[in-house]
Specification:
Length: 192
C-alpha cells in the first residue's frame, strides 16, 4: 500500500510540475520495491509530458491557444524528441473542435451558427478547402444522404426517397445531386 501511495502521489506531483519531489517519491517507492521497472526521473517526466499534452489539447479546444502552446513547448523542452510543433498542434486541435461543433449545429439545422464556426476555423487555417456557408449546408445534408443510401442498400427505396425529400424540405435540395438520386435508384434496382 505504501508503494502504491508513493506512486499515486508522485504522479500527482509530476502533473503539478513538482518533478524533484515526484522523483523523490518514485525513488522511495523503488527502494521499497526494487522490482519496479522504471527510472524515477524518466517516469516523472513521462507523467508530466502526458499531463501537459492532455491539458494543452483541452486548452486549445477551448480557445486558450497561447496557454496550450506554452504547455506544448514545455513538453517539447522535457522531451526534445517529441514530434510536435506547439503553434501548429494547438491550432490543429482548435480547428478540429470548430469543425466538430459546426457539424453539430449543421445537423441541428442551425446553418448560420455552423457557418460562423466554420469561418473561425477557416481564419485559423486558410488552407481549408471550403466556403463556410456551402460547407455548413453540405454538413446538414450529409446525414440524409447517408440514411438514404443505407435504406436503398437495404431495399427500401421509398424510405431512401423520403430521406432525400426530407432534406429538400429543409432547403437543402441544391446539395442533393443527380448522382445522389442515381445512386439510390441503382441500389434499389438490385432488389427488383
Amino acid at each position: 500500500l505504501r508503494v502504491q501511495f508513493l506512486m499515486d502521489t508522485a504522479q500527482k506531483l509530476a502533473h503539478d510540475d513538482d518533478l524533484p519531489e515526484a522523483i523523490h517519491r518514485l525513488t522511495e517507492a523503488k527502494t521499497l520495491n526494487p522490482s519496479l521497472d522504471f527510472e524515477p526521473d524518466e517516469q516523472a517526466k513521462t507523467w508530466r509530458i502526458q499531463h501537459l499534452m492532455e491539458s494543452a489539447e483541452e486548452l486549445a479546444r477551448s480557445n486558450q491557444l497561447q496557454t496550450a502552446r506554452a504547455q506544448l513547448a514545455e513538453a517539447k523542452t522535457l522531451d526534445p524528441s517529441l514530434d510536435v510543433v506547439p503553434e501548429a498542434q494547438a491550432t490543429t486541435w482548435r480547428v478540429e473542435f470548430l469543425m466538430e461543433t459546426a457539424e453539430e449545429f449543421a445537423r441541428g439545422g442551425d446553418l448560420p451558427t455552423a457557418s460562423q464556426w466554420l469561418a473561425e476555423a477557416l481564419e485559423l487555417d486558410p488552407t481549408l478547402p471550403f466556403e463556410p456557408e456551402t460547407r455548413a449546408e453540405e454538413l446538414a445534408v450529409a446525414p440524409y444522404l447517408r440514411e438514404g443510401q443505407r435504406l436503398a442498400q437495404d431495399g427500401n427505396v421509398n424510405g431512401a426517397i423520403r430521406a432525400y425529400l426530407q432534406a429538400e424540405s429543409r432547403g437543402l435540395a441544391d446539395h442533393i445531386t443527380a448522382q445522389d438520386w442515381n445512386e439510390i435508384c441503382r441500389l434499389g434496382s438490385t432488389f427488383d
